[in-house]
Every structure is written in structure tokens, then in C-alpha cells.
Design brief:
By secondary structure, this protein is of the alpha/beta class. 20% of the residues lie in helices and 21% in strands. Helix 1 runs parallel beside helix 3. Pfam families: NAD_binding_9 (PF13454).
Length: 206
């Protein structure tokens, strides 16, 4: 589905009791949104924020109003609005049928069911239905909102609407510099920059 991401650990992760696990996701397109979606599902299930190889022992089930995982997404664009799925043209279709586009693990036909419920296709045709790309984007945003809601106060997601211009690692963790000169610091970094922007430089002038 043209979504790719790469995860990088920091030089130092938080120690027990030092606060939530901080994850910086560079990119809010399909890849970045899927990362946040799966983090939310892990937090809701009580599997994220637990002990890791760097010694962090925060748990997703910790009490109080402090989140166990703090995600910062860096991207000037809205979620799932990059080159692959940001098109507004309904004629731009997925190149994979609905049966291959579920975002929910173990539920292969989740997107199929969503398409039928939305009236995009009939139950008989839904499995091999090639949906418009912008409808899949809306499906992912819907499932992302649901997953985040299921975490209660255990997950905090902040969207920094700026372009990431640099990455460094220091004693405080992974540091992402943005176009406005500010910095976002985390314990884990996910590069989810996806595809390059669409251009027409390759086409003949005439």
C-alpha cells in the first residue's frame, strides 16, 4: 500500500519511573498513521510502555493521569494526506482489492466490511472491489481515531505541523530539528517519510 517506515532506538531510553516512553514519528501519511494506530492498539492492550532492552519499566496500565506513551508526529500535512492517499479524485483507485487493505491484524475483511457499510459497493462485489484511495485514507483515519479513543489517558499524541530538517542523537535521546528551528526529543524514532512528492519534471515541455 506504498507505506514504509523505519524505526531507530535512541542512545538512552528512560529509566523506571522517569516518565512516559517518548516516540517521535516523522511523517503523518499512511506509514506514520499506521505506526500510531498500532502503538495505540498496543497501549490499549497493555503491551506498550512495558520493560524494554534499555531498562524502561513504564507500563501502559499505570494509574493516574500521566500517559505511558507519548507520541509526537512531525509533518506539516494532515494525517493520511501524502502523495499516495491524499488525492481528492475518486478516479484514483487502490491497486490492491479491498480484501488486501485491512489495517486490523487478524481481520482480513475489515476494510471490505467498511466499504459495504459505507455504501461503496455491494457485499457480493466487495472482496475484489478497488476502492478510491481517498476512501481508504478515511478508513484509516476512522480506525486510528477509534484506536486512540480506546487508550483513554494512557496515550498522548501531539502533531507538530512542521517539516523535519535534521536528526541527531545525544544524552537526552533522539532529537528531531524542525523547519521553524524548534526541536522534538524522544526515546525512539520512526522515520515514516513514505514516497516523494509527485512532480511533472519528467514530462516533455510540449
Amino acid at each position: 500500500m506504498s507505506a514504509r517506515s523505519t524505526a531507530h532506538p535512541s542512545a538512552s531510553a528512560p529509566t523506571a519511573g522517569s516518565g512516559p516512553l517518548r516516540i517521535v514519528v516523522v511523517g503523518a501519511g499512511a506509514a506514520g498513521s499506521l505506526v500510531v494506530f498500532h502503538i495505540a492498539r498496543l497501549v490499549a492492550a497493555g503491551s506498550a510502555g512495558n520493560s524494554n532492552t534499555a531498562g524502561n519499566s513504564n507500563t501502559a496500565g499505570s494509574g493516574g493521569d500521566r500517559p505511558s506513551v507519548d507520541v509526537t508526529v512531525v509533518d506539516p500535512l494532515d494525517p493520511v494526506s501524502g502523495p499516495a492517499f491524499g488525492t481528492a479524485d475518486a478516479a484514483h483507485l487502490l491497486n490492491v482489492p479491498a480484501s488486501g487493505m485491512s489495517v486490523v491484524p487478524g481481520e482480513r475483511f475489515d476494510f471490505v466490511t467498511w466499504c459495504v457499510d459505507e455504501g461503496l459497493t455491494s457485499p457480493d462485489d466487495a472482496t475484489y472491489f478497488f476502492a478510491p484511495r481517498n476512501r481508504w485514507a478515511r478508513y484509516l483515519r476512522t480506525r486510528l481515531d477509534e484506536a486512540r479513543a480506546a487508550t483513554g489517558d494512557r496515550l498522548r499524541v501531539t502533531h507538530v505541523r512542521s517539516t523535519a530538517t535534521g536528526i541527531s542523537v545525544d544524552a537526552s535521546g533522539v532529537r528531531v530539528t524542525t523547519a521553524d528551528g524548534s526541536a522534538v526529543v524522544g526515546d525512539r524514532l520512526v522515520l515514516a517519510t513514505g514516497l516523494p512528492g509527485v512532480g511533472d519534471g519528467w514530462s516533455p515541455c510540449d
